[in-house]
Amino acid sequence: MRVPNAGTVLKAQGLVKKFAQLLAVDQVSLEVSKGECFALLGPNGAGKTTTCEMLEGLTSPDTGDIEICGLKFPKQRGDILKLIGVALQETNLYKKYTVKETLELFSSFYPKTLSIPGLVAKLKLEDKLDTRLEHLSGGQKQRVYLGCALVHNPDLLFLDEPTSGLDPQARRYLWELLREVKADGRSIFLTTHYMEEAQELADRIAIMDHGKIIAMGTLQELVSTHCQGDFLEFQCAESELESLQNSLSWLKTAKKLPTGEGFEVNVDNATTKTREFMREVDALGVNLGHFSIRQSTLEDVFLKLTGRNIRDD
Amino acid sequence: MINKSLVEMVKGRWREFKREPSAMFFVVFMPILWMLILGLAFSDSKQERYSIGLKNGSHAEESQVFDYLAKQSQLKVFEGDEAELATKLKRGEVLLMLELDAKGQAVMHFDPSNPEAARAHDASHHLIQEYYGRTDPRPTIANHVKAVGSRYIDFLIPGLLALSLFTSSLFGTGMTIVANRRENLLKRYMATPMNPYEYIVSHIIGRYFIFAVEFCCILGAGMLMFGFQVQGNWLSLITVGLLGTASFTSLGILCGSRTANTSTYNGINNLLTLPMMMLSGVWFSRAHFPDWLASIVEFLPLTACVDAIRRVALEGVGLASLGFELGILAFYTVACTVFAKMSFKWY
Question: pTM to 2 decimals?
Fold first, then answer.
């Protein structure tokens, strides 16, 4: 067995969790280093929340080991809970409490805590200190909720779908906050079904599907391992694509865009391929509506690995 | 035991009560409203008036007797033939049907199990004797007394206090726990080092603050509006109230120990509250129940609380002679706490 290095705050090995007939989590192993933001990405029902709750000590795994900062569940649960901050999915705090009262309540659970004014300033909620939660927007509530997880200055923060249900602006705002939290040297374990969120925040990403981690690495690693090269996107008639494919065999893998307007093709050398493509377009007199080159994204990796789009149910 | 998280949570319980207008309404204004409505409805000590039917027959003295009865303030008479009066009797519009038979004897048809009809019979009997010139061998004198402590309102106020403690504890505690569970808050608490039992204890202590409000408001209103007086020791009364609150709160925690569905909780709550509300002698004395029912009802926690409060407040009885009632309340407190602990689901 490998001894985790000093920089490892979370280490999980061979986690399995079964609910009746459903194998919710199947042999999941992962590690989070100090100061790292680790994202567990997957569609709804992939087993992310179950994994997260096992790591938080809320659900016990059927088999497998979890170690947080060198401590283990269930024996050292009490000590672990002082080191981690948790934001569960879809929790409603008391709506009749003010922001200050809510943070004071959560502070009271821990022996050592941050000062509330300082925390509130960090959350950019200074002017809402005495506002009741029922009068806050979704994004503001989510920040209070993040505050409850940060109140004891934890080493490791668990965030289960932190921006689910927020509008894009509130989401970006929260991301900014989370980047600051990370800059303070805290480690973050995040689950999300937003590609963009994983891409924006995570140092390393694990893709989860049907209870299994099917790929893990940095964004670059994932893209270069599973979906090399770039994508050419273009718009033309289907018959024109066929004639282009007759002279350029690499165009045979072109697929219709999900929007239905145009095609895309994965290529390894975008510059050369673009030149060849344009030459043929001119030669055949193709009426090209649109042309662009884009880099491979996490979305392409997911599609490649699972054969479906993350938002498809 | 007393630490800052418990203090924070008890503060929270009080906050939830104070900031929830409907909680305030049910705890304070509902009982006072009942007191007002029932107190005013039954405080009027007008003489009872009975509706009776007089059956038209053929006896010679009939019209004089019927005229005499019709003049009495105690009676409200309807004359008619048999079919007509039989219908009225069925509908409860008259309590009895009176006729003079061939020998001139008054015959009264009524249901003796209806106490009001029995009283109507007695009144009619006396009036008929009076008409025929009865003189009482030894007349009696009725001296009407209106003692504080023996009025209906005096009976009602302790009942309303107990009922208010019962409904607010059962609903307030259980419902909050169920809602917190549904909203994932209990799960969130489990991800903190807080000792989960502090959460439960905070509900019990929080209830005592609310008890103080109910106790002062209901008894205060009774004293101001109806001149209610507590005959017994105030400390005994408070002790009974606190023990009652403890047993109702643990019952509430037990009812809310598993479900995350507020409608399910409402169902359980109604299943317990409605029968007890009717059976425990809040509104009327249990003396009217058949013996077998009365002996079952004695073991309900609300009955024990109602009885104990009434005996302290109205009869001035001390705690020492309330062993049975206090025992029942203590039993429910312990039993519900044990079962709640066994079945409690945090998430």
Answer: 0.77
